[in-house]
Input
Amino acid sequence: MEVEQDQDVDRLNDLLRGLRLHSDINRETGFPLHWNRDDCHQHIVLSDDMFTATYVGPGQTHNNASSVRANFSIDPSVGIYYFEIEVVSMGQYGYLGIGLSMKSTNLNRLPGWDFYSYGYHGNDGLVFNSSGKGDPYGPSYSNGDVVGCGIHFSRREIFFTKNGQNLGPAVTNEIMIPIENEKGEFISMEDPLADLYPTVGLMTMGGVLSANFGQKPFKYDIDTYVRNNQF
Output
């Protein structure tokens, strides 16, 4: 029994070490550390430290939506991953979103609108799961709010938080997707939760979001979440 308990403690400590992504972590770890200037739509300007994203586009139609991804994808071996944003300014209409996306998704979209993309939007509180049609999920969010996005890989579950409160599962039980060639022949199975990047999107003049990838304490108590949801 003591051996099993020691193993459980070791596994929990491994998860917690993976979540504590402080600024002194070596860049070669492959964890997301900041936004990526080379994976950023032209209508978004990043601060010098690459934590703050400011929208500078016209923001008139959905065609003006813009996103930016982090510098690294999330390694599924971490088990549970989490990051937060603060809404410095919601802009004119509050069209913004936080979520996850694969490298192949279009940066000219808000998180969740395209395949392999998942997002929780501020203006209406809807969650978008690889679709332009959102589902009711949580409250809207605006200036001063801190919103987080987490993923539990073994449960295949994505969740969001607002001002330190967990809003519950937003995306669950994502299935493997069969990939076929042009002849309709099966090639392989693709995992829609593999190779995901932290992502934010903006679509309104004056929108500003600041990210926390673990360089400072989170608003949400992610350590307690990990302790209670480690398996």
In short: The domain at 2-228 is CATH 2.60.120.920 (Jelly Rolls).
